[in-house]
Write a structure and sequence with these properties.
Its cofactor is iron-sulfur cluster. This protein has about 300 residues and is α+β, with helices and mostly antiparallel strands. The chain contains eight helices and eleven strands. It has two domains: about 5-25 and about 65-150 and about 280-290, 2-Layer Sandwich (60s Ribosomal Protein L30, Chain: A), CATH 3.30.1330; about 150-275, 60s Ribosomal Protein L30, Chain: A. It starts with a helix and ends in an 8-residue tail after the last strand.
């Protein structure tokens, strides 16, 4: 039986290793989707770009270094049970894990204090890493999603509130306007997260959470799922292709997350993940035994 201090140290160590690993090896669903999209391309240039992506992954694993130089700002979505024994320490240990991963992986230093323009050199600063919380009653597990929010894939982020008369056509126009204006900056093929709610902040958070979903999954609402498919087809028609060199496929998927909303507003937001979509998903039980969901068969 570990003491509480030993337990915190153990979970911190596991998370530091997991963050470092997820910066080097893409999750299973992303790897499979990239292979699928490569087959669908007919021109040689986009095929060559995909082949370069796969070679990049091989070298990242072989050389034990991040697969993209921009390892982003770390963000975590934590779904923590009220009975999880280390609930009081989760946020602080995630910050410490981020610092350790920064030096051990290593990760590029990306946390710059706003207004002071000072790089902390640790990927930890005021409000970074960001931790989004969901408390789960009567539960003793802790589910953590990690995400490296790079500069390029963060650039297309946008949110606004539409007039109700603009309807879901307005949502579609908003998403496509963002994609045609900034999609190239995010290193396609993209994962496009769309949030629909009442206000900018609720829509923005939903659009971020949408990026954590498994590729190929659908919104549980039939109409929302149909709009996901329509948006995916529409963005592919733009012809961005891998790395923006043109091609048939521009997105790995479009995910919509939504809540009920005020009848007078339609809050909508877009968040984007690049081809190197470095998300991770790990679950700890009450005894701190962990299960890695995003990368099957991995032991840290």
């Amino acid at each position: 039986m570990m003491t509480k201090t030993e337990a915190v140290e153990y979970m911190t160590d596991i998370m530091a290793k997991f963050v470092g690993y997820s910066g080097k090896v893409l999750p299973d669903d992303v790897t499979e989707k990239l292979k699928e999209l490569r087959v669908l391309e007919t021109d040689e240039l986009p095929k060559t770009i995909y082949d370069t992506m796969f070679r990049n992954q091989e070298l990242a694993a072989q050389l034990d270094r991040p697969c993209c130089q921009d390892t982003g700002v770390l963000q975590y979505l934590v779904k923590c049970g009220t009975r999880f024994p280390l609930i009081d320490f989760v946020e602080s240990l995630l910050k410490e894990a981020t610092v350790r991963a920064t030096f051990d992986a290593p990760l590029r230093h990306n946390s710059v204090e706003t207004f002071d323009e000072y790089n902390t050199g640790k990927n930890v600063g005021k409000g970074t890493p960001t931790v989004f919380w969901e408390i789960v009653p009567e539960c003793d597990t802790c589910e953590i999603y990690s995400y490296m929010a790079g500069g390029g894939c963060s650039l297309p982020g946008k949110a606004m509130v539409l007039m109700p008369g603009q309807g879901y056509e307005g949502v579609t126009k908003f998403v496509l306007d963002v994609m045609t204006s900034y999609g190239l900056n995010a290193c396609p093929p993209l994962v496009v997260g769309v949030g629909v709610a009442t206000s900018v902040e609720t829509a923005a958070l939903l659009s971020k959470k949408a990026l954590f979903r498994t590729l190929g999954s659908k919104n549980s609402n039939e109409r929302a799922a149909k709009l996901e498919k329509l948006l995916e087809d529409g963005i592919n028609e733009i012809g961005l292709g891998p790395q923006g060199v043109s091609g048939k496929m521009s997105v790995m998927g479009v995910h919509i997350e939504n809540t009920a909303r005020h009848p007078s507003t339609i809050g909508v937001a877009v968040n984007v993940g690049c081809w190197s979509h470095r998300k991770g998903h790990i679950i700890f039980d009450k005894d701190l035994k962990y299960t890695i969901i995003s990368h099957k068969g991995v032991t840290l």
